[in-house]
């Protein structure tokens, strides 16, 4: 089986694999800042546009990255409860890899579909050793091992696909594109719901991300080899670095001046400027520990490795 995807022969486009005749259960999981709620609202809106009764419930509220966020969306002719019982999700959509694995027991055995971004987000406070190159206690299972446990599964580097469009924050919409291929319904319905739910200035890039996710899923079904490009992610932690071979990049347009990174930087090298935008004011003290990157709720900071890529794909 290919590492990127596994598609059961019974799964035909336009049907919801494993759905009961009455209700389709979609469980969406991730961590704070990834857009779980936006995805679930799009899904709920699509249910409405199709004329179904829709129930949605969610747990969120973490203002910083790392907090668990999940949402249940159920639609059908009549839906009585807003929550999906354990083992009854037709689709588990994970915006973060470890969260997907944590919720696997909610997926229907033998018929459920697993869709996950292979992106790793390590909770910042799980990183007690902040030495560069230190090993993180992240799950070791590669995508192929996980996909072998489910009836139907897609593991893709949605973040890389989104980054290729110039905005890695639309990785959630890339996953919506993949979800649309699994669930069916006309693409126009999905595009309408996405355009309604995202900020007006991001409609264009979100629609491109949706198409990228659809193309990836269609290609994965047609030819698993074509999906390899985005299967494996770069390591979640920077490899051991001897010299100063990283760069801290700030996207000012995304910074809302919340001050989290400024307060949490262990080396005190960040400050807010007069416009309330973060700046690296003490670059010589920056160790590249990535705490600011992991904590920023708006993905406004990236610590980029500047040495040639050595990670294997
Ligand atoms: S990467 Fe640099 S700026 Fe960011 S938290 Fe670490 S030391 Fe501070
Ligand atoms: S970079 Fe992120 S964490 Fe830092 S102030 Fe801006 S929004 Fe807040």
Structural class: alpha/beta
CATH homologous superfamily of the largest domain? Pyruvate-ferredoxin oxidoreductase, PFOR, domain III
Q: Any guess at the CATH architecture of the largest domain? A: 3-Layer(aba) Sandwich
- Report the sheet-strand fraction: 15-25%
Separation of the first and last Cα atoms? 17 Å
Order of strands, main sheet, comes to 1-7-6-5-2-4-3
CATH topology of the largest domain: Pyruvate-ferredoxin Oxidoreductase, domain 3
Per CATH, the class of the largest domain reads Alpha Beta
Question: In words, what does this structure look like?
Answer:
This protein is an alpha/beta fold. It has 2 domains: 5-230, Pyruvate-ferredoxin Oxidoreductase, domain 3 (3-Layer(aba) Sandwich); 246-305, Alpha-Beta Plaits (2-Layer Sandwich). Helices cover 27% and strands 18% of the residues. It contains 9 helices and 11 strands. It has helices at 36-49, 97-102, 143-147, 158-164, 171-183, 187-197, 203-222, 260-264, 291-295, and strands at residues 5-6, 24-31, 53-59, 68-76, 91-94, 113-117, 152-156, 246-250, 270-272, 278-280, 301-305. Strands 1-7-6-5-2-4-3 form a 7-stranded mixed sheet. Strands 8-11 form a two-stranded antiparallel sheet. α4 crosses α5 and α5 crosses α7. The protein is globular, with a radius of gyration of 20 Å. 42% of the residues are buried. Residues 1-20, 227-242 and 309-313 have low confidence and may be disordered. The structure holds iron/sulfur cluster (2 copies). One iron/sulfur cluster binds at residues 248, 265, 267, 269-270, 286-292, 303.
């Amino acid at each position: 089986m290919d590492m990127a995807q596994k598609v059961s022969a019974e799964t035909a486009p336009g049907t919801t694999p494993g759905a009961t005749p009455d209700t389709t259960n979609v469980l969406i999981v991730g961590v704070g800042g990834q857009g779980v709620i936006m995805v679930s609202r799009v899904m709920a809106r699509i249910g409405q546009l199709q004329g179904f009764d829709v129930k949605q419930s969610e747990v969120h509220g973490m203002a910083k990255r790392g907090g668990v966020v999940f949402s249940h969306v159920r639609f059908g002719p009549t839906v009585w409860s807003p929550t999906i019982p354990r083992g009854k999700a037709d689709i588990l959509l994970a915006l973060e890899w470890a969260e997907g694995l944590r919720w696997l027991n909610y997926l229907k055995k033998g018929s459920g579909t697993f869709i996950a971004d292979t992106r790793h987000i390590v909770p910042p406070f799980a990183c007690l050793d902040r030495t560069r190159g230190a090993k993180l206690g992240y799950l070791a299972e590669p995508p192929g091992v996980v996909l072998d446990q489910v009836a139907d599964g897609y593991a893709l580097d949605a973040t890389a696909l989104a980054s290729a469009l110039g905005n890695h924050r639309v990785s959630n919409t890339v996953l919506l594109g993949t979800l649309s291929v699994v669930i069916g319904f006309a693409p126009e319905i999905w595009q309408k719901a996405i355009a309604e739910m995202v900020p007006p200035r991001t409609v264009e890039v979100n629609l491109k991300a949706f198409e990228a996710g659809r193309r990836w899923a269609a290609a994965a079904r047609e030819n698993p080899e074509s999906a390899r490009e985005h299967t494996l992610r770069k390591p979640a932690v920077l490899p051991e670095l001897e010299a100063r071979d990283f760069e801290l990049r700030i996207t000012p347009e995304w910074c809302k001046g919340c001050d989290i990174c400024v307060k949490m930087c262990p080396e005190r090298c960040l400050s807010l400027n007069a416009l309330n935008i973060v700046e690296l004011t003490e670059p010589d003290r920056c160790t590249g520990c990535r705490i600011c990157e992991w904590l920023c709720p708006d993905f406004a900071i990236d610590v980029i490795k500047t040495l040639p890529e050595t990670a294997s794909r």
